[in-house]
């Protein structure tokens, strides 16, 4: 059947004083029920913009979005605001890096969790409050019965992050978009929250899009991975494909930056030299070519002049001119299993 979430040729452009920024430039992916897709890439690669556009949360002023996004067969792009709001309360929800943007300082944490539940299910105030207590307990807030009437500023940063997750999950969403949900947290809380998301997914079959730049997190929670660079997908595959046998030089570079402790492969630690290109004036050819250590392996000047297309074989694919066999030989030589 159709994938649960389907994104086709998504393009997001911002009009700026300096010209048009192509923040997302023709992105396509599918997400099946109960699976977790990791979207990885450096900041500015279009990860967050993609998700805001999928959810209809981008600022409409000066932003042009095109393509197709369907959730369970329903078209999302261009859907009326009211319908999107309803879907966001119930079927799909999101967790951001910064809980302060998701929680209002003016209402108690419990009320903010109970309200959408009441609205969505028609539950009584009393039942919705119980549900808020239950959710706070599930995300690991101690003494939820007592803390439910606290205001966000009475919570620690880690507790606020959990409360935001409780809010995102209160209606048992079928799609959860988590945008660097644990980046601001210490390692222990981060691990607890990742476990919590995995548990909830097992219990409810939620599909998750997990945006992160941490490949250790990807290895821990994701089934599939999409690597973004300069607003495009440069490589996609299962988590095993990407972590064990990356085929795109950018993925290879990202892998080199995993802390050794968590590394699923034994790779030298070295950041990718250079920085992501300007999306106002992207380089011609392969957007990665100014930073790519492999461009000399490609005959002629193709890397600097011809844009590589994402070639998919089933769910696996990468956008690179480098010959597949040559690439595998180079990577095999440089990446050895631990
Ligand atoms: Fe590097 Fe060329 Fe492949 Fe781009 S197309 S990633 S520049 S080898
Ligand atoms: Mg971001």
TrEMBL record:
It is found in: Cell membrane. Keywords: ATP-binding, Cell membrane, Membrane, Nucleotide-binding, Transport. Coiled coil: none annotated. It is a peripheral membrane protein. One of its GO terms (molecular function) is ATP binding. Residues 7-255 form the ABC transporter domain. The keyword Membrane applies. The keyword Repressor does not apply. This is ABC transporter ATP-binding protein. It comes from Streptantibioticus silvisoli.
């Amino acid at each position: 059947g159709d994938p649960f979430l389907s994104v086709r040729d998504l393009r997001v452009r911002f009009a700026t004083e300096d010209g048009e920024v192509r923040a997302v430039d023709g992105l396509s992916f599918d997400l099946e029920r109960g699976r977790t897709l990791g979207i990885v890439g450096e900041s500015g690669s279009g990860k967050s913009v993609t998700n805001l556009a999928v959810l209809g949360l981008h600022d409409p002023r000066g932003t042009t979005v095109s393509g197709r996004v369907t959730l369970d067969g329903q078209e999302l792009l261009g859907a009326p605001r009211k319908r999107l709001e309803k879907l966001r309360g119930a079927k799909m929800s999101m967790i951001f890096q910064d809980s302060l943007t998701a929680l209002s300082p003016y209402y108690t944490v419990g009320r903010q969790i109970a309200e959408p539940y009441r609205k969505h299910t028609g539950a009584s105030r009393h039942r919705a409050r119980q549900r808020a207590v239950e959710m706070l307990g599930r995300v690991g807030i101690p003494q939820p019965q007592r803390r439910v009437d606290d205001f966000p500023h009475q919570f620690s940063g880690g507790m606020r992050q959990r409360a935001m997750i409780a809010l995102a999950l209160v209606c048992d969403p079928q799609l959860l978009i988590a945008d660097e949900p644990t980046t601001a947290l210490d390692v222990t809380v981060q691990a607890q929250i990742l476990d919590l998301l995995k548990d909830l997914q097992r219990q409810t079959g939620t599909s998750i899009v997990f945006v992160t730049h941490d490949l250790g997190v990807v290895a821990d929670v994701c089934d599939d991975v999409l690597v973004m660079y300069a607003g495009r997908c440069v490589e996609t595959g299962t988590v095993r494909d990407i972590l064990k046998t990356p085929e795109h030089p950018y993925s290879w570079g990202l892998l080199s930056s995993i802390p050794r402790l968590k590394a699923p492969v034994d790779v030298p630690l070295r950041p990718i030299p250079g920085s992501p290109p300007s999306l106002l004036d992207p380089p011609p050819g392969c957007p990665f070519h100014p930073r790519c250590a492999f461009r000399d392996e490609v005959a002629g000047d193709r890397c600097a002049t011809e844009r590589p297309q994402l070639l998919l074989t089933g769910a696996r694919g990468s956008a690179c001119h480098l010959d597949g066999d040559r690439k595998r030989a180079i990577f095999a030589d440089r990446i050895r299993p631990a």
